[in-house]
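User: Assemble these into one structure.

Assistant: Restating your components, then the assembled model:
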Amino acid sequence: MLRVDREPSLNIACVGAGYVGGPTCAVIAHKCAHHRVTVVDISEERIAAWNSDELPIYEAGLSDIVKECKGRNLFFSTDVDGAINEADIIFLAVNTPTKANGVGAGFASDLTYLEAAVRRVVKVARRSKILVEKSTVPCRTAESIAQVAAANARPGVHFQVLSNPEFLAEGTAIHDLLHPDRILIGCMPTEDGLKAQELLTNIYAKWIPRKKIIGMHLWSSELAKLAANALLAQRVSSINAISAICEAVGADVGEVATACGQDSRIGPHFLTASVGFGGSCFRKDILNLVYLSNALKLPQVAKYWEQVNLMNEYQQHRFSKRILAALFNTISDKHIAVLGFAFKKGTSDSRESPAINVVSDLLSEGANIRIHDCKVPSKQIFRDLACSLANGRGSVEVCETPYQAAMNAHALVILTDWADYQTLDYKAIYCSMSKPAYLFDGRSIVDEQEVRQIGFDVHIIGRARERSLPRLYQNVLADSRAVV
Ligand code: NAD
Ligand code: UGA
C-alpha cells in the first residue's frame, strides 16, 4: 500500500523534456520548493539545451522560472534510470504522435514511446511508485500501462496509474500552468487509487484552488482531454466554414463571430477565423477520436469528427488558391513574401503549421518564397519544407526581417498572428514591392482601410475583396430565395 504523509518532500521525475514536460515541471519546481523535480529525456541535445541558457523551446516567462529553480530543486538529465529509481511519482510526458505505419496508420496514436518509457520505469523500479499519464493518450491506455507494469514489476513493487492530462496552450504555457481553468486527476476508484489521487492533488493544491482540481474516473479523464481538443478545433473549423461563405456573399467573418460570440451560450473564444488551425495536437487528437469511434463501430461519430480536420485542410488550400487566383493563376518565378511560419503567435513551434501546407502549395506552382518568422529557426523551416522542396519547383529563402522578405515581392502573405506584423511600416513595404502589390492576410491582423489606402490589393480571410455581391452569387442567392 502507498504511504501518503501530510507534507511529504517528494522526488518527482518526468520522462520527456518537451513542450509539456519541461514547462510543467518547471512550474511544479517553482511552486513546490520542497519537492525535487528531475526531468529526463533520451535526447541528449534537448537536455543539453535545457541545461544551457538557450532553452529548447520558447515560452514567455519560462526562462525566468527555469533560471530560478535549475540546480535548486529542478534538474534536467539523460540519466533516465537514476531519476526513475529515486522518484516517488513519475510523470510520463513523452510524445504520442499519429501512427505512420501498420494497423490504424494515419489515425491511431503511436504509443511506442509511451510503452518504452513504462517498460523502462518498471524494469528499473525497486519500490512502488505512482505513474502519471501526462501525454495525451487513447481511452483506456492506463489499463495497458497497468498491465505492462503488473506483468513486469519486481516482487512487492506496485504501480498506481493516474491520468492527469495537460491543457496548456503553447505561447501561454506558463500562464496556463500557473492559472489553469481546471486540473483533472483520473484514478481507479480503489483505496490505493484514491490515495495516489490525493497525493497528486496535494502537489497541485500548493498553488491551485482545490475546487479547480477535479477527481474522476481514469477513463473519463483520458477521454475529456481528447474531447476538449476536439471541441476547440471544431469551433475553429466552424468559423472557418463560415468564413468561406462570408467571402462569397460579402459578409465580414469578424462581425459574424462577434455577433455569435456575444451570445453567452456560445461565448467568444476560439471564433477567430484563420488560415486553419495547426499545432501538434488538434489534428492528431481528432484522428485519434476518429480511430476510436470506428473501432467502437460508431462510423457516424467518426465521420462527424473527421469533418473538422477535412474543413481545416480545405481552409488552408482554399487560401493558397485565393492567392493563386488573384495573381492571374500564375506564380511561377514570382516572389512571394511569407510573414509567419509558427502555427500561432508566441511560440517557436511549427508542427502542423498551416504555413507548411500553404508554402508547399505555392512551391508546387513554382513560386520563390521568402519567409520571415519571429521565433522559428531557419533550420526548422527548411526541415518542415524538405519534402516540398525535393520536387525541385520554386525556392525558399529565410529572411532576418519582414522588410527583407518583402523586397521586390509580388505578394505579401501573413500566416501567423504575431503582434509584430500589426505594427510594420506597410508604406515602406508597399514601396519596396513589385506592383500591383498584393497583401493576403490569413489572420485578419492588418488594418484593412489603412493598407488599402497605401495601395495594396488586399485579401483578408473571411472578408470579400468587394462588399458588393459578385454576380455569380447574386444569381445563386436569388435561386435559393425562390426555392424557399
Ligand atoms: P515533445 O515531442 O515536445 O516531447 C516529448 C519528449 O519525450 C521528446 O523530447 C522525446 O525525446 C522524449 N521521449 C520519447 N520517448 C522517451 C523515452 N522512452 N524516455 C525518455 N524520453 C523520451 O512532445 P510534447 O509536445 O511535449 O507532447 C507530449 C505529450 O503531451 C503528447 O502526448 C501531446 O499530445 C501532449 N500535449 C502536448 C501539448 C503541447 O502544447 N505541445 C499540450 C497538451 C498535451
Ligand atoms: C491546444 C489547446 O488549446 C490546449 O488546451 C491543449 O492543451 C493543446 O492544444 C494540446 O493538447 O496540445 P495549442 O495547440 O498550443 O493548444 O494552441 P491553441 O491556442 O489551441 O491554437 C491551436 C491552433 O488553432 C492555432 O493554429 C491557432 O492559431 C488556431 N486558432 C485558435 C484559430 O485559428 N482561431 C482561434 O480562434 C483559436
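Residues 15-21, 40-43, 46, 80, 93-96, 113, 116-117, 135-136, 166, 168, 170, 280-281 surround nicotinamide-adenine-dinucleotide (ligand 1) (CB under 6 Å).
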